[in-house]
Amino acid sequence: MEVQQVRSEILPDGKKSALFRLGNSAGFQAEISNLGGAVVSLLVPARDGDIDDLVLGFDSLREYQTNPPHFGVIIGRYANRIAYGKFTLHGKTYRLAQNHGDHHLHGGDEGFDKKIWAAEEVSGDDSVGLKLSYVSKDGEEGYPGKLSVTVTYQVTEENELIIDYFAVTDKSTILNLTNHSYFNLTGAGSGNILDHIAMINADAFTPVADENAIPTGKFRSVEGTPLDFRNPAAIGERIESEYEQIRYGEGYDHNYVLNGGDAEPGLAARVTDPASGRQLEVFTTEPGMQFYTANHLDGTLSGKQNAKYHRRDAFCLETQHFPDAPNRPEFPSTELNPEEEFHSTTIYKFSQET
After folding, report:
1. Into how many domains does the chain fold?
2. 318 carries an active-site annotation
3. Residues with Cβ < 8 Å from 258, sequence gap 6 or more?
4. pTM over 0.85
5. Residue 145 — pLDDT band, cuts 50, 70, 90?
């Protein structure tokens, strides 16, 4: 098992980005860029032994900085939405970029996905890894506090991609980190994922008020709704439902309240592709997960090898705290204080159905 630097690119702003390859003895391989921590490729064997790249993305690293879908990147300081781009912390109101209509999305105009991270090779007993570090200055994108973040990607012999997030701050702030990989278990660019079979380990979700996807602050049972994936079902089975939450998202784009997790990573989801036999299991310490079915890809964006990515050609399983939690005291807190250390783990484990 080893880490290799594959190539580097000079970005339009003159900064240097690099691409690193992490692989195991079974052919499982991840390519990670220090630009936004992007998972640029993920090579995974199928039932018949074929190895395909399972994540949507671009051939050029600079495209990760200039294009909008957030393919494979680290999202921060705050993943998902903050209503009206503002929140109050210890009596002071902070204003953020309103980069999604009236609201704040995925860290603002220039979030963690647009930054060059310092990269360092790390290794374990049965893994190889890449530790990425970034210091976000006090006031960056409107957020308080100097925040020091490390995100470590590890590839194991068990065909796992493990992501460990750490952060400390010198001033009270808010934080919500995730990875925004778009998966297609048949292979990136192979078509839609509507036949993939999904299980999501959640009894409830956080409904949104309208098409802006700001949560109401309530919890709603998945029972009797198209969002119930407690028993495995095809992603496409109910995706055209007239249920108002599906209409608001134009498909699935919802935060699930996960069962389990917390101190140790618990099972959040399992997705299987009948065509290739590949299976993805997600384990996390996070309380929530955004299930998104690439509803807004429209076929105009050129991805790897000039592939056109269309609506529902991928799915995202973004482990997270809840959207708009800084404005919702009923949600798990996303506050981080100077005497605390943020730590979160998510594991993407790949296997094949026999």
Report:
1. 1
2. yes
3. 201, 202, 266, 268, 284, 286, 287, 288, 289
4. yes
5. very high
**Whole-number CA gyration radius for the chain:** 19
From the list 180, 196, 254, 321, the catalytic residue is 180
Mean pLDDT calculated for residue range 190-211: 98
- What pLDDT is stored for residue 13 in this prediction? 87
CATH number at residue 156: 2.70.98.10
> With contact defined as beta carbons under 8 Å apart, do 97 and 109 qualify?
yes
Q: Which domain holds residue 189?
A: 2-352
Six-digit token string for 282: 């997600």
The lowest-confidence range among 115-129, 240-254, 330-344 is 115-129
Q: Is 353 a catalytic residue?
A: no
The catalytic residue among 63, 281, 286, 318 is: 318
